Amino acid sequence: VAGVSFIGSGSAQVETTLSNEMLSRVVDTSDEWISTRTGISRRHVANVGESLTTLAAQAAKNAIAATNLTPDDIDLIVLATSTPDDLFGTACQVQAAIGATRAVAFDLTAACSGFVFGVVTAAQFIRTGTYQNVLVIGADLLSRWVDWEDRTTCVLFGDGAGAVVMQACDRDRLLGFEMRSDGTMNGCLNLAYTANAVPLTNGVTTQKGTFTAITMNGREVYRFAVSRVPEVLEKTLFHAGLAANDIDWLILHQANQRILDAVAKRLKLPNERVVSNMAKHGNTSAASIPIALDEWVRTGQIQAGHKIAMSGFGAGLTWGAALLEW
Ligand code: ACO
């Protein structure tokens, strides 16, 4: 059985940013409300012509450039996204855009848990010896799907992409993981398809519809996150024989600063070890963890040998944790 290592990271943003102050001219809100309730100051929003493919491909190129590999070396691309350019999948377009000619590519949908689920999925292929070099991308353009008239959700989300390259090696640096789903709570957070009946021919009615906009029960999601995330992190640490204090960095899905603070408090982790960049990006869904990881790697804060606990949580509901050594 091969081990898994993490050999490079990358991220990408679209150019346009939308500050809280700008948003307060769109809906009835204020910088004060958004900052104090969420910790978000601004988010990136994609213009027409900026696609999930272009953003994910840029993050992927940056991640590969951080290694000694070329796109041709990549065996598998897992694209975690809930906002594809094409419902049939966007991973193959990313494959073409970066010239990863040998890679097989597919999308993985698990909302804000997508990146953690993607890393775990990639690890299975590496550990079985099937693939050597795997690119895992988390990318989302939630600005396409927010209701810009709904102040309870539109202030939260932003666009972005992040990626890591994972590689087979002797010593396994994925120290543990846990994944969870609870579909009974699905109604808390949705980007659901709604359809109208379309009569086709005698006795046959089909449907035609669309995905409307993100809907969320914020309080339920908050309660879910602050109870389930510490629990799954504690379990992952326990199975790896580690204590919270052994962790150099905690990278949570960047949903809300209050969630980060509550989880850190439960784990008794000092705030200096909790990665937070939501002030600059908002909640970028599947992209939030790899963007944060990449920013901390590029600024030299995360260094080789550091132990990182990651936890994603969101729609599904889904949640999970992965413990790794960088
Ligand atoms: N600006 C000003 N006022 C607002 C805004 C806004 N943008 N949004 C809501 N309000 C108002 C509400 O209408 C309400 O007013 P009322 O008391 O007159 O009815 C008041 O503010 C309080 O609203 P609450 O919803 O109770 O506010 P709360 O303190 O719960 O904060 C928040 C809302 C920030 C969404 C919080 O519930 C939260 O963080 N939940 C977690 C949500 C989250 O992180 N979701 C994403 C995670 S999963 C994923 O990433 C896909």
Automatic annotation (TrEMBL):
The keyword Metal-binding does not apply. InterPro entries: ACP_syn_III_C, ACP_syn_III_N, FabH, Thiolase-like. Keywords: Acyltransferase, Cytoplasm, Fatty acid biosynthesis, Fatty acid metabolism, Lipid biosynthesis, Lipid metabolism, Multifunctional enzyme, Transferase. Coiled coil: none annotated. GO terms for biological process: fatty acid biosynthetic process. It catalyses: 3-methylbutanoyl-CoA + malonyl-[ACP] + H(+) = 5-methyl-3-oxohexanoyl-[ACP] + CO2 + CoA; (2S)-2-methylbutanoyl-CoA + malonyl-[ACP] + H(+) = (4S)-4-methyl-3-oxohexanoyl-[ACP] + CO2 + CoA; malonyl-[ACP] + acetyl-CoA + H(+) = 3-oxobutanoyl-[ACP] + CO2 + CoA; 2-methylpropanoyl-CoA + malonyl-[ACP] + H(+) = 4-methyl-3-oxopentanoyl-[ACP] + CO2 + CoA. One of its GO terms (cellular component) is cytoplasm. It is found in: Cytoplasm. GO terms for molecular function: 3-oxoacyl-[acyl-carrier-protein] synthase activity; beta-ketoacyl-acyl-carrier-protein synthase III activity. The keyword Cell membrane does not apply. Residues 254-258 are annotated as: ACP-binding. It comes from the Bacteria. Pathway: Lipid metabolism; fatty acid biosynthesis. Residues 239-326 form the Beta-ketoacyl-[acyl-carrier-protein] synthase III C-terminal domain. The active site is at residues 112, 253, 283. Its main location: cytoplasm. Residues 106-183 form the Beta-ketoacyl-[acyl-carrier-protein] synthase III N-terminal domain. Its EC number is 2.3.1.180. Homodimer. Belongs to the thiolase-like superfamily. FabH family. Catalyzes the condensation reaction of fatty acid synthesis by the addition to an acyl acceptor of two carbons from malonyl-ACP. Catalyzes the first condensation reaction which initiates fatty acid synthesis and may therefore play a role in governing the total rate of fatty acid production. Possesses both acetoacetyl-ACP synthase and acetyl transacylase activities. Its substrate specificity determines the biosynthesis of branched-chain and/or straight-chain of fatty acids. The last Arg residue of the ACP-binding site is essential for the weak association between ACP/AcpP and FabH. This is Beta-ketoacyl-[acyl-carrier-protein] synthase III. It comes from Leptothoe spongobia TAU-MAC 1115.
